Amino acid sequence: MSAKNYPNPDKKYDLHSHSTASDGELTPTELVEYALECGIDVLALTDHDDTSGFQEAARAAQKGDIELIAGVEISTTWNKRLVHIVGLNIDPSAPALQAGLENLRGQRMERGARMAERLEKRGIPDALAGARQFSNGNILSRTHFARYLVEAGYVKNVNDAFKRHLGDGKPAYVASDWAELDEVVGWINAAGGVAVIAHPARYKLSATKLRLLIEDFKACGGVGLEVVSGSQDKKDTRNMAEYARRYELHASVGSDYHGPAQSWSGMGKQPPLPEGCIPIWQLWENHQS
Ligand code: AMP
Ligand code: MN
Ligand code: MN
Ligand code: MN
User: Is any atom of ligand 1 closer than 6 Å to the C-beta of 12?
Assistant: First the structure.
């Protein structure tokens, strides 16, 4: 792309999405095909703690008029809370990143076993085996437990599974020490990528805590804030645009699409970045000739 027509205001970006490599419902190929149907020009695959879907997605992207960005969404502990940090435009083969992600996947297995014990005590046996059928050898997510609880008839739907059993502070919730913020941002930067705070409105942080998170994140070398996210209202988007402006963070946009059953995050339906935001993709597109 030439400097003259940059940035192309007509391009549609979706820089946060999931495939069956984590807790999405579509295979990497199906996800790319769906993004094409939704009119996305630039898609980032950002599976939880795993980049194994990238190769397949890249092959599918070559067949259509869509650019694929390698990404990841990393489970991070900040001040004893779980936050999600997205890495964009990473080199998926970077050793420190892969070692860190492998460790997180191990923690997910341990957490899963403990969650299953808690569910068993609540009269729900065999949840680990049930969830693993849904994860199909890939990372083990609470989403897979939720799908099992639905299939086995314990709850009406996935949302209900989180509300009654799996959500933060609910009886089968098991807190875990994920990777620390400075480690996570370090892995992403060492992989040549850019680090972004995912769906900042979803953590329900007070203004003071959100400022602290952003300040810590910046001090670690983080550069982006997901200003437009699939699951948030206009007020949150305006608010996050203001944080991005005030803290000189680049703004990202992502649906957090997980598949047709999780309708809270439709693909291609996000509004454009608010006026005054500096798009995160400038950080990698500016380097292209
Ligand atoms: P985990 O990464 O295993 O802790 O699982 C978190 C994932 O569960 C998120 O990435 C979402 O995809 C999903 N999730 C969290 N809360 C809900 C909810 N209330 N309803 C549906 N899915 C949810
Ligand atoms: Mn998820
Ligand atoms: Mn997330
Ligand atoms: Mn996500």
Answer: no
